[in-house]
Amino acid sequence: MKSFAVLAAFLASASAFAPQSKSNGVTTQLNAEMSKSVPFLTYPKNLKGYVGDTGFDPLGFSDYFDIKWLRESEIKHGRSAMLATVGFVLQEFWTIPGYQHVDDSNLGPSVVGTSAMLQIVFWMGVLEFWTNKGNVTMETMFSDPARVPGNLGFDPMGLAKGKSKEQIAELELKEIKNGRLAMLAIGGMIHHNWVTGEPLF
Question: How far apart are CA 184 and CA 81, in angstroms?
Fold first, then answer.
C-alpha cells in the first residue's frame, strides 16, 4: 500500500511537466482583434464595413442596438451640428430683421421666444416622419433592408453624380469626420459662452 502511494505521487508529479494539448475550439481574449482607437478594448465587430470606422465603441452600443439606427443617428446629429456651428457664429454678427441683436449666441432662443423654438421642433418632427415614411422608431426605421443610413436622396448640387463607389465613400468619410468634429465644436462653443459669460469672438 505504501509503495502504491509513492508510485501514485511520482506519476502525478511527472504529469505536471508533460506538454498540454492545444484546443482549437477555444478562443481567448488574447486572440481577439483590438480596437485601433482604444487599444486596450476589443474591436467592436458590428462596426466593420462602415465608412469612418475607427473601432471606437467603448460602451459597446453596437452590441445592443441596431447598427443602422446608430449610424443614422450619428449622421443626423453630425449634419445638425455642422449647421449649428455655422449658425452659432453667424448669429453673433448678423441678426434676422425684426429681432433684437444679442452678442451671446446662447441667448438667441430667448430672443425669438418659445413659439419659434417649438415650431423648429415641430417641423423637424414632420421632416423626420416624412423622410422615414412614418417609420420613426428604432424597430421600424430600417424595415426596408435596402435603406442606407443617412441617405435621404437629397443631393441638390449633384455632388454624387457620376462618382465611383470609392469617390462616394470618400465623400461619406469627409461628411462623417466633419460631422464628428462639428458635434465636439458646437459643444465647446456653447460651453465657452456659458463658462466665460462672453461672446465667442
Answer: 8
The answer to whether the CB of 78 falls within 8 A of the CB of 183 is yes
- Separation between Cα atoms, residue 128 and residue 65, nearest integer Å: 20
CB count, 10 Å around CB of 199? 16
> Residue 57: is it exposed, middle or buried by C-beta count within 10 angstroms (0-12/13-18/19+)?
buried
The amino acid at residue 113 is G
Q: Are 108 and 102 in contact (CB under 8 A)?
A: yes
- Tell me the average pLDDT of the chain: 87
Calpha distance 74→91 (Å, rounded): 25
| 148's grid cell | 442606407
What whole-number distance in Å separates Cα of residue 58 and Cα of residue 19?
38
pLDDT band at 13 (very low <50, low <70, confident <90, very high): low
- Whether the predicted pLDDT of 141 surpasses 80: yes
Q: Helix (H, G, I), strand (E, B), or coil: what is residue 145?
A: coil
